[in-house]
Specification:
6 strands, 6-stranded mixed sheet, Rossmann fold, 7 helices, 210 residues, 39% helix, alpha/beta
C-alpha cells in the first residue's frame, strides 16, 4: 500500500509581499502566489500524484492555493476539510506590522526570538510550541488515519503550522526546528510506513523554482 502525504505551503500572499506579520489575518494571494499554487499542481500532476483527501486551514490563502493546485491536476471536485488547527501561528500584537518597523521598535534580537524561537511567543500571540500543541493532535486524529488507509492526502497550510508537522515527521528537536524554512508553493512529498513513520521524503521542484 502506498501511503502518501503532501504538505504545501500557500503561495505568496499580499502581506508576504509587503513584509508584514500575517498570522491569522486573511490577505489574498498575489499574482505570484497564484502562479506558485498552479505550478505546484503541475509538478504534482507530472509526478503522478492524485489526491483522495485534502485538508486546509480556515485562511483564504491556503484554501486558494489548494484550489488552484487541484485545478491544475484536474481534481477540482475534491472538497477540502477546513480546520483552524492548521491556521498559521498567531502573531498577536505583531499582526499587520511591517517586520522592519517591528525591529526598529523592539530591536532585531527580540523580533528574531519571537519569529524563530520554539517556545517564546510574541505579545498576545503563539509560540511554535503552541502551534504544535494544536496542529499535531489534529494531524493524528484526522489526517494520519487517511494516509494510513492509503488515501493520498494534501495538506495546504502555512509556514509555521507545516513546520509543526515537519518537526514531528522529520524527527526534529526544539533546537533544530528554528533553522527550518518552508518555501511557498513547494510540495513536500512524504511516503509513510504502516506505523506512520517516514520512509522517504521528496521536495518537488516547480517551474518557478527550478
Amino acid at each position: 500500500m502506498d501511503r502518501v502525504l503532501v504538505l504545501l505551503r500557500h503561495g505568496q500572499s499580499d502581506w508576504n509581499l509587503k513584509n508584514l506579520f500575517t498570522g491569522w489575518r486573511d490577505p489574498p494571494l498575489t499574482e505570484r502566489g497564484t502562479a506558485e499554487a498552479r505550478a505546484a499542481g503541475v509538478a504534482l500532476r507530472k509526478a503522478g500524484v492524485s489526491f483522495q483527501k485534502v485538508f486546509v486551514s480556515e485562511l483564504i490563502r491556503a484554501q486558494d492555493t489548494a484550489a488552484k493546485a487541484l485545478a491544475e491536476m484536474g481534481q477540482s471536485d475534491l472538497v477540502p476539510e477546513k480546520s483552524l488547527a492548521l491556521n498559521e501561528r498567531s502573531y498577536g500584537d505583531l499582526s499587520g506590522l511591517n517586520k522592519d518597523e517591528a525591529r526598529a521598535k523592539w530591536g532585531p534580537e527580540q523580533v528574531l526570538i519571537w519569529r524563530r524561537s520554539y517556545d517564546v511567543a510574541p505579545p498576545g500571540g503563539e509560540s511554535l510550541r503552541d502551534t504544535v500543541a494544536r496542529t499535531l493532535p489534529y494531524y493524528v486524529r484526522s489526517i494520519l488515519p487517511c494516509v494510513l488507509r492509503g488515501e493520498t492526502t494534501l495538506v495546504a497550510a502555512h509556514g509555521n503550522s507545516l513546520r509543526a508537522l515537519v518537526m514531528v515527521l522529520d524527527g526534529l528537536t526544539p533546537e533544530t526546528i528554528p533553522k527550518v524554512e518552508i518555501a511557498t508553493g513547494l510540495p513536500l512529498v512524504y511516503h509513510l510506513g504502516a506505523d506512520g513513520l517516514v520512509i522517504s521524503k521528496d521536495v518537488l521542484k516547480t517551474e518557478l523554482q527550478g
